[in-house]
Amino acid sequence: YMSNLTHLFLDDNELKAASAQYLGYSKYLQNLQMLSLKNNRIENDGFRYLMVSDNFGALRHLSVEYNKVTEEGIDCLTDSKFFSNLAHFDIQQNEIGDTGAQIISTCVMRNLRFMNLKHNGIGELGYKCLSESENMPLLQTLHIYPGNNAPMEAKKSLMRNKYLRSLNTVM
Q: Angle, to 10 degrees, between the axis of helix 17-25 and the axis of helix 43-51?
């Protein structure tokens, strides 16, 4: 029965890296389309276990808010086999900083329509990298304020990006 599972919500369970590792290794989650791990403690190692898993090819929606993921954890996105398939990515209230935003901007995300980066300590350099990225052509909604400090000009540059033509909401 678990092999037919398409949505899994494990919010507020105090899950740690080992739990994320089990999820990543589980062959029963290969049809999973939505995974929500809000407000747990997976941190960098747990995030890494999820991102390098071969079992999430069908995943389209990933929520990992409030999990203490830093730029060190985000670094594994370039190795992920499924990250480019996501339509919805929510990583608000972590600590990815400018480096994390830069890494995200280099990842090819042709299907991404929604991304939440609020409260991640992203500054002017992170905004610049995101605003110059060619890798999110379908992005429609970007939640990046508040909790990221950058001058207003950097914030406005997101709406002027010629590669973010579909972007209609920046909050």
A: 10
Tokens of 158: 């997101």
What is the pLDDT averaged over residues 88-107? 97
Query: Which of 60, 161, 76 shows the shortest CA–CA distance to 113?
Result: 60
Q: Give percent of the chain with pLDDT exceeding 70.
A: 99
Give 49-65 pLDDT, tens digit per residue.
999 999 999 999 999 99
CA gap 22, 151 in Å, rounded: 42
Cα three-residue angle 137-140-144, rounded to 5 degrees: 105
Query: Residue range 81-102: average pLDDT?
Result: 96
Tell me how many helices (H) and strands (E) the chain has: 6, 7
For 4, 128, 143, 157, 163, the CA distances from 132, given in Å and listed in that order, are 39, 6, 17, 9, 8
